[in-house]
Structure to design on (364 residues):
């Protein structure tokens, strides 16, 4: 440990115990480096307790975790794993006042734990802190690059957190922990309940983790976007029943953009087919144009906004605008899948044999 850095933090606050909870499934490619990043953290090792909650791996993940004497392995062996089940199993196995949650495809910044604890100790009303999550290989694909843009918000008080976060145990206990049924959106859903219990969250101006999204194929992007749409609907369905508008605007925007585009296309095809004349063709053209404008609104009207807010050059802002436009289509189908599944009691489920962490580069 860097003694000078250790003294710097000790002068400001007393170190507290931290439970570090890693969740994973078929994570043999990434788990070892995640664990090592915690062990090499600039924080007293005696105060760190590491838990690895495995959702039912069929690869060497559990074997790798067990090579570390500092790691407590929790084997869940689930047919239908969810992130919430793993995270709850991890934090409930410990007793430290602070819990650092990590996905197995992340690398913890060595200074983060001390930074997070200091912020929590400075304000007892803070229930959770987060920092920057940076993609390790944004240059490897457009999708990795988008992820690097979207993980982070401006420093200061924020209204939600993601999978990498430090949470006060009291806040977890007062909220009951993670929803164990959600296959997506479990982090914002928990953050809403913790916030409703009176806690606040901080986005710190500090690096928290490096992450390897490893999204190199369009099929991965479409699948992830589809599941994010499902998550929007699932979370809004739960929270909306309380009268809260949390994620209501986001879900409505997806429905208007994606659903409006598809409705415009269908109308543009059906109207002239039923009544083939100039008037119907004109109406069909307006339907097609209207649906296209709804979908491509970000690309048509928000490039300058993205340049300013995300500090992008014009070409990069245009690329990001294309993502913000087209992502609404798979997200819309995800929303449809949620409500269809609810109507027929067929919710979307994770299957462990289809889940694994990947690397953007073979040598990562």
């Amino acid at each position: 440990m860097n003694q000078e850095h250790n003294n710097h933090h000790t002068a400001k606050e007393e170190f507290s115990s931290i439970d570090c909870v890693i969740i994973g499934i078929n994570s043999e490619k990434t788990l070892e480096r995640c664990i090592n990043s915690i062990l090499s953290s600039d924080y007293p090792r005696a105060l760190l307790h590491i838990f690895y909650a495995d959702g039912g791996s069929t690869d060497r993940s559990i074997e790798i975790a067990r090579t570390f004497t500092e790691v407590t392995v929790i084997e869940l062996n689930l047919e239908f794993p969810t992130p919430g089940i793993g995270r709850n199993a991890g934090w409930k196995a410990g007793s430290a006042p602070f819990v650092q949650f990590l996905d197995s495809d992340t690398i913890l910044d060595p200074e983060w734990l001390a930074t997070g604890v200091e912020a929590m100790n400075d304000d007892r009303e803070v229930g959770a802190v987060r920092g920057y999550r940076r993609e390790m290989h944004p240059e490897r694909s457009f999708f990795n690059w988008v992820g690097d843009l979207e993980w982070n918000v401006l420093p200061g008080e924020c209204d939600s957190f993601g999978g990498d976060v430090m949470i006060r145990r009291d806040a977890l206990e007062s909220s009951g922990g993670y929803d164990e049924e959600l296959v997506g959106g479990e982090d914002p859903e928990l953050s809403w309940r913790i916030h409703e219990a009176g806690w606040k969250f901080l986005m710190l101006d500090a690096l928290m983790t490096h992450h390897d999204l490893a999204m190199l194929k369009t099929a991965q992007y479409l699948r992830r976007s589809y599941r994010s749409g499902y998550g929007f609907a699932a979370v809004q369905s739960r929270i909306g029943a309380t009268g809260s508008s949390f994620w209501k605007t986001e879900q409505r925007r997806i429905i208007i953009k994606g659903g409006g585009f598809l409705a415009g296309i269908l109308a543009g095809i059906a109207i002239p087919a039923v009544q083939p004349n100039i008037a119907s063709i004109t109406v069909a053209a307006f339907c097609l144009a209207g649906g296209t404008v709804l979908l491509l609104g970000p690309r048509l009207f928000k490039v300058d906004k993205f340049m300013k807010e995300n500090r992008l050059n014009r070409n990069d802002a245009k690329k990001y605008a294309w993502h913000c436009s087209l992502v609404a289509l798979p997200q819309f189908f995800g929303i449809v899948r949620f409500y269809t599944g609810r109507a027929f009691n067929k919710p979307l489920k994770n299957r462990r044999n289809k889940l694994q962490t990947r690397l953007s580069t073979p040598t990562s």
About this structure: The radius of gyration is 22 Å. The longest strand covers residues 200-211. The chain has two domains: 3-216, 248-354. Residues 3-216 form a domain with the Spore Coat Polysaccharide Biosynthesis Protein SpsA; Chain A fold (CATH 3.90.550.10).
